[in-house]
Amino acid sequence: MQIFNSNSFSLWPFYLVINELPPQKRSLSENLIVAGVWGSVVKPHPNVYLLPIFKELKKLQEGMDVKCYGEEETLKVVARTICGTCDALARASFMNMKQHSGFYSCPACLVRGEKPGDSTVFPYEENFRLRNIPQYKEHVKWAVEKKVILTKTPKHEEKWCGIKGPTILSEIVPNIFTCTAIDAMHCVDLRVVRQMLHLWSDKDHKDKKFSLFIKLKSVNRKPRNLNPPHFLQRLSQTIDKLIYWKATELRSFLFNLSLIILHGELDTVYC
């Protein structure tokens, strides 16, 4: 997570969240544990950044004796890191994988992406292979032996499946593929939701059954007449200004406003 950025300096903190706390209290500033901070003009190398943190977490995993106030006996307390989350770019970096534009950039499966245009898309497959730790170790071994980080040989990409080398993250969490959360902002809000709105409203699709192009004036009036609840950070702009929508607006549309705005405008088959 980047909390400070200028043209010459960036600050990158690493937070630990106490899972035993109630969900509404876990992310409060007074309950977050700062495990590490990196200040530099460039992004940190993941393994260099994680090594000191890993050493501390290893001690916690082995357990430590704690004596509670007023008690005679000591208790052995064990702490384990069970999952983690970061944005899509940082996730690929910390997992030492290809970035989201790569052919084997999915952190969950081994489906090979395609590039029909500028973006990488993953075709639907019935029996796709999920990533697992034994395969991961083989990919790391092949990547290190062939030095794919330096050579970047695309003809052998199936051999290493987007894995560029080892990562200390694999020693911190039980399974880097199932314990690393998907970035909802980039994958859902800025991708899926925006793409759906684009398909519904774009002139190029006006002849499709799902198109809202001829109803845009009616659809665009609805957000202006809404009285949103206090917890909505932003009220969505009109759909004709979709290019300017922020991630919070797209998220609000998906979870709070879509049914109200699209009711009576879009056939329920396409909602």
Low-confidence stretches are: 1-7
H/E element string?
EEHEHEEHHHHHHHH
Q: Which class do the helix and strand fractions yield?
A: alpha+beta
Helix content: 25-40%
Counting DSSP H or I runs of 4 or more residues, the number of helices is 10
What Rg, in angstroms, do the CA atoms define?
23 Å
- The order of strands across the largest sheet is 1-2-3
How far the N terminus sits from the C terminus, by CA atoms, comes to: 34 Å
> Which percent band covers the strand fraction?
5-15%
The mean pLDDT is: 84
* Broad shape: globular
Question: Tell me about the biggest sheet?
Answer: 3 strands, antiparallel
**Strand tally:** 5
Question: What are its keywords?
Answer:
271 residues; three-stranded antiparallel sheet; two-stranded antiparallel ribbon; 9% strand
Describe the structure.
This protein has helices spanning about 25, 45-60, 90-95, 135-145, 150, 155-160, 170, 185-200, 215-225, 245-260; strands spanning about 5, 10-15, 35-40, 65, 75. α8 (about 185-200) packs across α10. The protein has about 270 residues and is α+β, with helices and mostly antiparallel strands. Among the domains are: about 85-170, no CATH class; about 185-270, no CATH class. Residues about 1-5 have low confidence and may be disordered. The chain is built from 10 helices and 5 strands, in the order ββαβαββαααααααα. Strands 1-2-3 form a 3-stranded antiparallel β-sheet, covered by helices on one side. Strands 4-5 form a two-stranded antiparallel sheet. About 35% of the residues lie in helices and about 10% in strands. The longest helix is centred in the last third of the chain and has 18 residues, at about 185-200.
